[in-house]
Design brief:
The chain is of the alpha/beta class. It is built from ten helices and nine strands. The longest helix is centred in the C-terminal third of the chain and has 17 residues. It starts with a strand and ends with a helix.
Length: 240
């Protein structure tokens, strides 16, 4: 029996494995429903409890995701303080493991905004990206109006978000949204497997601490960051 979200784990050294979360609704190009958001939130929380070394987010059937399932959104609007999409984003931003996106095919809407929360993004040359929120009468989600301008600059982010025009993997790589571009799905699997195996072999505490420093937004001056670096480094040194 297949499910819309498939989760698998490969054990790593010291029990810190690699968790793969696959969107598995290819007949709808992996469009995300409210129920899928709930499953994604649960899968990310479980990976965090298991102290996974890395989490890979990917899609089945030649698509990353076509974005939100709009019919489902109408039937199950994300209202209230803790709807499934909010739970998903909370679990995503709290994740301590290195988060890797493996993108093959279209990444629309949340399929693009979620990449802003990933530590590494690998995509096939055939992948495309799009932010069609405004034309749908919506606004971009997942804090992307903050994160995308930081990455590409205000004017480029405004163009991408206001017009919602499709851009390819090469453009995504040039703007820093994608870490690397590979030829096809086979090479994508090989690259992600190599990267996750290497991550799992790294010292666990140092890997977690480095991820935490990369996403920390409290120490925003050189002086406060130097102090934070010092305190984290000292916590990792062997006790005397």
């Amino acid at each position: 029996m297949t499910t819309d979200i498939e989760v698998s784990t490969v054990d790593g050294p010291d029990q810190h494995g690699v968790v793969t979360i696959r969107l598995n609704r290819p007949v709808k190009r992996n469009a995300v429903t409210s129920a899928m958001y709930a499953q994604l939130a649960d899968a990310l929380a479980a990976a965090d409890r298991a102290e996974a070394a890395a989490v890979v987010l990917t899609g089945a059937g030649g698509a990353f995701t076509a974005g939100n399932d709009l019919r489902d959104m109408v039937e199950n609007p994300p209202v209230g303080d803790d709807p499934p999409p909010v739970r998903f984003l909370a679990a995503l931003t709290a994740l301590r493991a290195v988060l890797i996106a493996a993108v093959d095919g279209p990444a629309v809407g949340v399929g693009t905004t979620v990449l802003l929360h990933c530590d590494l993004v690998y995509a096939t040359a055939a992948s495309t990206f799009r932010l069609p929120f405004v034309e749908l009468g919506l606004v971009p989600e997942a804090a992307s109006t903050l994160l995308l301008p930081r990455l590409v600059g205000h004017q480029r982010a405004a163009e991408l978000m206001l017009f919602g025009e499709r851009f390819d993997a090469a453009a995504a790589h040039r703007m820093g949204l994608v870490t690397g571009v590979v030829a096809d799905a086979g090479e994508l699997d090989a690259v992600v497997a190599q990267r996750t195996e290497r991550l799992a072999a790294l010292p666990h505490a140092a890997r977690y601490a480095t991820k935490a420093l990369l996403v920390d937004d409290t120490a925003t001056t050189v002086a406060t960051r130097l102090d934070l670096d010092r305190r984290v480094l000292q916590s990792l040194l062997p006790a005397r």
